[in-house]
Amino acid sequence: MAGNIQVVLREDFDNLGASGEIVKVRPGYARNFLIPRGHAVIATRSNIAQAEHERRLALSRLEKERQEAEEQAKALKGLSVQIAKEAGEKGKLFGSVTAQDVIEALARKGIEIPRKKLIMPEEAIKETGDYQLFVKFPAGVKAPFKLRVKTKS
């Protein structure tokens, strides 16, 4: 039975490693899955050097993305958005506030974000009041902003 071989990963794998890492895998896994699909290459000196170069480039790109994300997050800091909905007694809404409602309210303030980047509370917003929501930017940056849900007059 043959031993494990070393490969350089070209992509991140949750159960295996990050891009650019040298990992040991079974020969069949490397030969039949990782290498043919371009997920990894055999760990030779030139491939290791290439992976190190790509890792340095990726780190600098990630740092640049993080700085841009922090600047966008500063724009949201202290921002308060209001949404008016029909409500009954005791501030209970007819329906609920959706992510699309929040995105449209942010767009009216001049801030465009994709729906997938908005982090809503676990439970639907079905009452008037103040809520803290977040926008998730690349590089793990989260920006909070306030949402005020009030009754339509």
Overview of the structural elements:
The chain has 153 residues and is an alpha+beta fold. It has two domains: 5-65, Ribosomal Protein L9, domain 1 (3-Layer(aba) Sandwich), CATH 3.40.5.10; 73-151, Ribosomal Protein L9, domain 2, CATH 3.10.430.100. The protein has three helices and nine strands, in the order ββαβαββαββββ. The protein is 33% helix and 31% strand.
Summary of the model, kept short:
The chain has 153 residues and is α+β, with helices and mostly antiparallel strands. The protein has helices spanning 27-34, 45-76, 99-108; strands spanning 5-9, 22-25, 40-42, 80-85, 92-97, 118-119, 125-127, 129-136, 142-151.
- In DSSP terms (H or I, runs of 4 or more residues), the helix count works out at 3
**Secondary structure tally: strands:** 9
Strand content: 25-35%
Order of helices and strands: EEHEHEEHEEEE
Q: Please tell me how large the radius of gyration is.
A: 24 Å
Low confidence ranges: none
Spatial order of the strands in the main sheet?
A: 4-9-8-6
Structural class: alpha+beta
Supply the CATH class of the largest domain: Alpha Beta
Keywords:
153 residues, alpha+beta, Ribosomal Protein L9, domain 1, Ribosomal Protein L9, domain 2, 2 domains, four-stranded mixed β-sheet, three-stranded antiparallel β-sheet, 3 helices, 33% helix, elongated
List the helices and strands and how they pair.
Layout: E1 5-9, E2 22-25, H1 27-34, E3 40-42, H2 45-76, E4 80-85, E5 92-97, H3 99-108, E6 118-119, E7 125-127, E8 129-136, E9 142-151
Parallel strand pairs: 4-9
Antiparallel strand pairs: 1-2, 1-3, 5-7, 6-8, 8-9
